[in-house]
Specification:
Layout (H helix, E strand, L loop, with lengths): L5 E7 L36 H7 L2 H4 L3 E7 L9 H10 L3 E6 L4 H8 L3 H4 L2 E6 L2 H6 L3 H13 L3 E7 L8 H12 L4 E3 L19 H9 L4 H9 L14 E5 L4 E3 L8 E2 L25 H8 L12 H4 L12 H6 L13 H16 L5 H18 L3 E5 L3 H12 L3 E6 L12 E2 L10 E4 L5 H11 L4 E3 L6
Parallel strand pairs: 1-2, 1-7, 2-3, 3-4, 4-5, 5-6, 10-11, 10-13, 11-12, 13-14
Antiparallel strand pairs: 7-8, 8-9
Helix pairs in contact: 1-3, 14-15
The structure holds iron/sulfur cluster (SF4) (2 copies).
């Protein structure tokens, strides 16, 4: 496999930055090195780096992934960033670091890693021209980019479209050509406050002026975004399976930014991870992550099947060298979807209606219910599960109980922390109680499965499965 099995957006809880760009939308805390603390401890992360790396093996994730790491501030200021990067590379993954390329000491540490590790690192270099100029850091920034190049680390230089730099665009271009051999790619600067259905482009220019100014960089990244910026979507989306957002602080995993947690990677690490797609229940009218997740991960439709992610990142320099290394260019020349089978019709149907219930609260129509009952009965019978206990008696638990009862599968009991308050036509018990004779327990609270299942396993020997893996 030359490409990436899953593209995992990975957030680290750093909020400080050594720069102060005018257009920065990250909420900085005033202190250069302020870091978020969790649980009032001094640690940034709930788990040790060793534990996190152990949880993120190729085997557990199903294939070689790219961890696209960024902080809510300067990524390389995170004290553990080199250790995390090295651990992921040692596991066999790729690591992309979104950063401002000014933290020399960290770049030097990465440049000393073995050549095979360096080949799988990608630096997404954010080029903050005015701020670097104001701080007299342009030369040192360029030296850092040269260190990447000389160390065999792939990189791409990118600027965010913004009005502040309009007066200095020509000198920015000259600097870029002379130091980096090409113009930077351009990312559309957007207003993070979503008004209506999609973030607005942040500019005082007219659409025609805006397009004309930034098209002059001849960046495929910019032109693709212009084309695909606010197209509505309605397809089955595999975000959550081909891609997702991992909060390194806790291990919580979400299909897409702004969606609900589906699992946790760092609890229960001896067991497999159940990945769950958004299906047709994307909460956004317009795809928030368009160019990344469609072009690199292939989560659903492809606006243009001939567009590949390397086009948004690479540049050819006058000496015929390129910004991307061959390894990274190859990885960006594929989509994650190439390495996954699409879901079976039954699985897609089941997950789709389950996610619709979770995100939109919609119950199945009578026809849909008939089909769901058929599917659930078929898969549980194949496994030999005719007597089921349900963990979690909320709306999703009730949704499943109804299907099981219509399918004539015996629901032997419900289990819930609020057991004493719940009125039901089935027996309800506490999680600590031993479960009566059942072929399996299905946990309806799927986002908490990784902390519920280990507790249930302590006293019970039957299989414990998540509601999301009923159809396998
Ligand atoms: S480098 Fe990034 S995080 Fe730091 S001030 Fe600039 S935009 Fe904000
Ligand atoms: S924002 Fe885009 S990638 Fe994310 S769930 Fe919605 S459609 Fe899928």
């Amino acid at each position: 496999m030359a490409g990436i099995y899953r593209f995992i957006n990975t957030n680290i809880p750093t909020v400080g930055c050594n720069l102060r760009c005018e257009y920065c939308y990250i909420k900085q805390r005033g202190n250069e090195n302020t870091m978020l603390k969790i649980d009032n401890s001094k640690q940034l992360f709930r788990y040790s780096v060793e534990h996190m790396i152990k949880a993120l093996t190729v085997k557990r994730l199903g294939g070689v992934c790219m961890f696209n790491i960024s902080g809510s501030g300067e990524t390389l200021l995170c004290p553990e960033i080199v250790e995390i990067t090295e651990g992921l590379l040692k596991n066999g993954h790729y690591v992309a670091l979104i950063n401002n390329c000014t933290i020399r000491s960290r770049i030097e540490q990465l440049a000393k890693l073995p050549p095979d590790y360096r080949a799988r690192i990608f630096f997404k270099v954010s080029f903050h021209y005015r701020e670097l100029k104001r701080k007299n850091m342009l030369e040192s920034f360029a030296n850092n980019v040269h260190l990447l190049k000389n160390s065999g680390i792939g990189y791409s230089i990118e600027i965010v479209s913004n009005d502040y730099v309009l007066e200095e665009l020509e000198e920015l271009k000259e600097f870029s050509i002379s130091y980096f051999g090409a113009l930077p790619h351009v990312l559309t600067g957007r207003d993070e406050q979503i008004v209506g259905t999609y973030p607005r482009i942040q500019t005082r220019l007219s659409p025609e002026e805006y397009n004309s100014v930034w098209s002059s960089f001849d960046s495929d990244l910019f032109s693709y975004q212009q084309k695909a910026y606010d197209l509505p979507h309605s397809e089955f989306c595999y975000a959550g399976v081909y891609t997702g957002t991992l909060l390194l602080e806790t291990g919580d995993f979400h299909p897409c930014p702004g969606t609900k947690k589906v699992t946790n990677f760092f609890e229960d690490i001896d067991n497999h991870i159940e990945f769950v797609p958004m299906a047709h229940s994307c909460p956004f009218h317009h795809c928030f992550c368009g160019f990344f997740l469609h072009v690199l991960a292939g989560v659903s439709r492809e606006y243009d099947p001939d567009v590949y992610f390397y086009q948004f990142r690479d540049r050819l320099c006058p000496d015929n060298s390129t910004w991307l290394t061959p390894t990274i260019r190859e990885a960006f020349s594929h989509r994650c979807s190439e390495y996954h089978q699409p879901y079976s019709t039954d699985k897609a149907y089941y997950i789709d209606l389950l996610m619709r219930k979770i995100y939109k609260g919609i119950n199945p129509s009578p026809e849909e219910e008939t089909e769901l009952v058929r599917i659930v009965e078929k898969y549980l019978t194949q496994k030999g599960y005719r007597k089921i206990a349900i963990y979690g008696m909320g709306l999703i638990g009730e949704w499943l109980i109804k299907l099981l009862q219509v399918a004539n599968i015996d629901v032997v009991c419900g289990i819930d922390r609020r057991w004493a308050e719940i009125k039901s036509n089935i027996a309800i018990q506490a999680p600590e109680d031993v479960i009566p004779s059942a072929d399996a327990v299905i946990v309806s609270v799927y986002a908490e499965f990784t902390n519920i299942a280990p507790l249930l396993r302590k006293k019970n020997i039957m299989p414990i499965i998540s509601i999301t893996e009923v159809v396998f």
